[in-house]
Fold:
Amino acid sequence: MDNRLRTSLLSLHSALVEFERRGYEKTHGRVASGEFLQAMLRDPELAWLAPLTSLIARFDEIGDGENAASQRRTWRARVRAMLAARGDGEFAGKYAERIQSSPEVAFAHAAAMHALGGASVQAAPPSIH
Structure:
């Protein structure tokens, strides 16, 4: 697979995790990395990130066998759809909020969409309150 795509998705995931960690620590106080990892696995407030984490983990599982090209196309389409989602699902809503709230997440999102070959660099239009 494309190393640039892998790197951009890992950077996006890292930006999201850092954003979530800052919010978590505002509520719970500073925590060690291992403690935060456990929170990411167990805290329902952080569970929204799991679908993206799972798709990124699948990246390295796609081998070079006969079905690899088809699996890569399907995987890319799923990631692109997830990152460009404009729906009402939990991931789409929280992801769009993070893009609007964090320049780091916004830049990482744009880089990931570019690496995916997506035309859209924004998950959802800005909300007006």
Confidence is low (pLDDT under 50) at residues 119-129. The radius of gyration is 15 Å. Residues 3-116 form one domain. Helices lie at 3-28, 33-42, 50-59, 68-83, 90-101, 103-116.
